[in-house]
Each structure stands twice: as C-alpha cells, then as structure tokens.
Amino acid sequence: MEKFIIEHSGALKGRVRISGSKNSVLPIIAATLLTDEVCIMHDVPKLTDVLIMQNIIEDLGAKTIWNEEKLSIEVGDIKKTQVAYELCSKMRASFLVAGPILARCGEVKISLPGGCAIGSRPVDLHLKGLVALGAEISQEHGYIHARAKKLEGANIYLDFPSVGATENIMMAATLAEGQTIIQNAAVEPEIVDLSNFLSSMGAQIRGSGTDTIKITGVNRLRGTSHNIIPDRIEAGTFMCAAAVTGGDVFLENVVIDHLKPAIAKLREMGIEINEGFDDGIHIKGSLDRLPIDIKTLPYPGFPTDMQAQFLSLLAVTPGTNIVTETVFENRFMHVPELIRMGADIKIDSRSAVIEGVAKLAGTQVRASDLRAGAALVIAALAAAGTTEIHDIYHIDRGYYRFDEKLRALGAIIHRKTS
Length: 418
What we know:
Strand 19 (344-348) and strand 20 (351-355) form a beta hairpin. The chain has helices at residues 22-31, 48-59, 85-88, 98-105, 124-132, 163-173, 189-200, 232-245, 260-269, 307-315, 335-340, 370-382, 393-396, 402-408; strands at residues 2-7, 13-17, 38-42, 63-67, 70-74, 107-111, 136-140, 143-147, 155-157, 179-183, 204-206, 212-216, 224-227, 248-252, 272-274, 280-284, 293-295, 320-324, 344-348, 351-355, 364-366, 386-390, 412-417. The chain starts with a strand and ends with a strand. 31% of the residues lie in helices and 25% in strands. The protein contains 14 helices and 23 strands.
C-alpha cells in the first residue's frame, strides 16, 4: 500500500496543466461500445478508474491502444453481454456500459456497481429509463439482466437529474427507433461532452446542457475522434491548494465557465482570481480569508465533488463557516481525519459548522474516498509538521500525477510504499 508524506509547503507557485476529465472520459469509453469502428480520444488521463473501464470493454471484446494520453478503441464484435463482477465491483461508472450493450446486442447482464462509499447512489433511474425504452428487467443472483428485442423511443422524466442515468439513457436511445425525450436531465458539462462525442459518431441529439434532451435514433454509429474536456474538479482542487497556501498559481487547460461556482466562492473569501487569459486562469491566494457558507447542488450549483476540498480550506479560514451537503448523505467522512489534524468542525445532520483555526498539525490520516483524499492533501500542505496520508489509491482514481504536479509547484510531497 502506498502513502503520501507531506510537509508544510509554503506558498505554491508556478503553472500546472489540468488533465482531461475523468467524469467525462468514463462514459465516453462506454459509448465506444455503440459502434464497430475505431474511436480515438485525446487528453485521456491514465487514472485507475480509466484503466478499469478499459479492462471492462476489453473483456467484452474491445481492442485498445494507448499512445501517451491518446486512447484508441475498436469494438468490432461484442463477444459477450455479461460484464465481469470483479470489474463492476471496483467502480461506480461500470454501470454505464449497460445502455450501450443493451442497445447494440439486445441484452446485458451486469452486477450492481461498486465505488466510493459516499452515500446511496441507486441505479433505479438508469433502469427506469431502460424500461421506458422497452427493456425487460430482472434481478438474478446479484445481477441485473436487461433484455429488449427492440428499443423504442419514449418520453422519460427523471425524478432527480442524475448524471449517470442521463448518460446511460442517452447512449441507449441513440440506437432506439424513434424519438426519446429526457426531461429533468442532468446539465453537467460532462453530459455535453458525451453528447458531442455521440453526435460526432452520427447520433442525432438536441438540447444537451439543458434539462430537456431530445434524441432521434439512428440505425448505426460510426467511429470518430474527440478531445476530452478539462477536469473541472481537478482544476478546483488546485485552486484550493493555491488558496490555502497563499500561493500564486496559473492553471492551464481549463474551461472557466465550468468553474464559476468555485470561482465565486473563492472570490467571496478574498482570493484574487484573474480570468483574462486565453490559455487558463490565475489564482493568487491569501492567508487573510473571509468565512463563507456553501451549499452543494446539481450543476450549475456548487459541485458536491468540491465540498471536501473547500472544507479543508475553511478549516483554516477565520470565523464561522457552514457547509451544507444536499447531494450525498454520507459525504463528511473526511471530517474525523481533519479533526485529528486540529480542525474545529461539528456535524449537524447534512451541515458542517467549521470554526476556522490558526493552523492544523500534521499527523497520520486515511483517505476514505477520492475527494476526501484530495481534501487531506490540501490540509496537509498548510499543516505544521509532517502528514502521512494512507489509502491513496482512492486519490489515484481521480487525479493524474497529482503528487508530480504539486511538486512542480513547490509542494513537499512524496509517495512511499507503506
């Protein structure tokens, strides 16, 4: 097992390039199952989750080739319609292959997915959408079995704007007969990126990025080449790292519109942010910050995936800060670890009340999930002494060369085997 050893690092300074979006590339890899032609993706980070999704489609018959951060995929024939349990159990996004396999093969057998234990994320909305398209669903020995002689377009209303359900239904609907309308659809940038990828394959999609998406099914999809959008959560994480250390950091390869909620909150705290560049964004941190309140919401609200990182920043921000989590019910698992480092945080139902302290102290902590791990890294950068972060495999699921990028900015961080 590997761990991070982090020393108090002072102000981070320099430039860092943000990688392609993990949450965008995973559904796009799943979407390559919809065609028998070659699909090429650029700016693909070699993250643990990405490699798991690669293994899933290879197990189904895909041929894949890496060339640095370019990934080529060809799924000539899908050799089987059952997805291996040992692969599904490792990652939540594994369920995204269900829609494409069902659309192309007429059936799919897949177990309920694994992933970070940050709260209930049921697949009932995924299944509701597939049933509306004509699938028959049964559950057998821990597997979901979906069958459909022919998928047909339908009007589907999502009770919650689930990103995964929107993606799964979109992919299945591209090969369904007739028109599908998804109402109360998710509007995240990753939905738009998947839509752009599918459209370049020949899919007919309108309305992505709004709460109503219309898809007219086609007979077949073709291969394509696509650039993955930058990872807005990685960008936000580096913004927090710059802010907590009083740093001076330029982020390359970002879409500023995707970062508006984080930018607004950082400015509210007194962090200087300059957007006036063609190639990125400049963050100048301050150790004299103001307290704020945060409430997580579906996009374009404040992202739940940035809650933990901001909470670390607020732990050393003077005054009373309040963070309310509305998306997942179990997303404060990093709080006990921050308290071990000296943070003053109290949990009241779905809210955390943070009384900013002058400084944190390094100690041994454990990452409970992906974003919690990133939050502990941010806290460790500003903590006095040495911090050891264990279970960093969680962090490797979503941050490409995280420690290397931080070292390039002056952070004192090393990866060691426990």
